[in-house]
Target: ABC-type transporter, ATPase subunit
Amino acid sequence: MTASLRRLARPQLWPAVGAVLLTLVATGFGLAQPLVAAGLVDTVSRGGSVAGPAFVLAGLFVAQACVGAWGYFLLERTGERFLLRVRTTLCSHLVRIVLPVFDRHRIGDFISRASADVVALRDGLTNTVVQTVTSVIIAVATAVVMAFIDPVLMVMVVGVLAVSSVVLGAMSSRIGDASVSLHTTVGTLSAELERVLGAIRTVRVNRAEDREVAAMTGLAQDGYRAGVRTARLVAAIGPLSEIAMNGAFLLVLFVGASRVASGDLSLGSLVALLLYANQLVMPIGTAVDGIAEIYKIKGPARRIREVLDLPVEQPGDPQPPAPSQSAPVLEIRDVRFGYEPHTPVLRGLSLTVPQRSLVALVGASGAGKSTTFALVDRLYEPWSGTIRLNGHDTTDLGLAATRARIGWVEQDTPVLHGTLRDNLRYAVPDASDPDLWDVLDLVNLHAKIRALPSGLDTEVGERGVRLSGGERQRVAIARAILAKPDLILLDEPTAHLDPANETALTRTMADLRHECSLLVIAHRMSTIRSADRIAVLRDGVVQATGTYTDLLRTNSEFTRIVGGSATPRPPAHPATTPP
Model:
């Protein structure tokens, strides 16, 4: 087990030890039963009273059952506590992993690791491992008692079982590799299913159902083959262990009977040895099966360890220092960054957003606009250069303090499953309903939400599917405004809006300049014209800044970008009048 998993299991060590001890006590009561039974047989053969031995034997049965049940409960509770700790730790780790990791991994695979793999690990560590250790101790104790009764028979039985254990152990090691393959395939299948269901409308309109099902069926078949491989190995181990254990029992029966006939062993001792041999079957079988199961948890253990070893964000101090009233709200100086090594997206970007201003960011697709937003909010760290917020370097502020002063409305306008109230309060959980209605009024959603039967408690559906694209966008903008940040990043905020709502939102952005600064990725003319300053991005650098009028007169790139909207163009094919 790796250090991270050992750390998670450590708090459950003593409860697990307690469960083992109770199991061993119950086993002790069980080990005493054949000795009492042997005495009872010898008493009967001598014609004595059996009331006393029978009463003791019954008491041992009851004690074993009660103590064993207590130990089982403790073990199961320990397993559930371990499961809780691993799940919460894994979920906490997953939501804090640095964003570049998500660019390389699939979400569905992470979900599989946090669900199926965790359960498999729990069963393996708290049930299989503990039961295997307990079974080994029971087997050793049983062998010791057998040696006390008849060392010759004990040596013969242990010899048979030892040889079979070596053979079975060699087979068990192959189960681990099959387990890794099985759990990896299940993770990939989960990732594929998450991808397909997350884009189910795209799948339907492109008639791709059969192709997607075929791909997932192939993965399911890979999982089936890995599972069958594991089952074949486990199935081979079972009969071999049974042959060995039944052989040991028959050995005791035949050799013991001959020793009774020769007078070297009493009938009661033979009965005790047969009972012990029978008792030995269960722990040896459990131990052998347990070893096979332990190898099976190699797969989930490795996959969980891989997640816990991934780097996470360090939030830092959540309280930002007092902002400088004289410094710009945002200063970007000579920033270089790329998603892949040696492939820069930003090539020395410099940009300033003054206090209480609206700055529009324009440029062709791939110029680096959305990447700039990601760096400002510290989802990624630049290769070089500095980003200052209210006069403070963001690397000195800490992630929590930086993001507390920035609101970001992404281009995809994500809305989470839940109610409208849940989504609006996402960044400000204690916001009052009047505050919610105020921001809804700013984005022209007040009347629409008031008219709904459930109002703020209206369910929005998975990813906001019950809202239109424009409504999702305005809810996301309202959520950002509610947090009262110093800077709001808006990625094409009017992209999904009709003309009336576009005009209303443009007025809202103009009014918001009195409360905070706005940096807007803009393609619509209404947004570009309303900006105090415009920055033109090309190939990862700011090529020019200025007002709409100045840039239209002096910058050819800006003229090209807005040309289609600034001046009407004739249609490519003249309209024809039908006869």
Notes: Residues 566-579 have pLDDT under 50 and may be disordered. The radius of gyration is 36 Å. The longest strand covers residues 330-337.
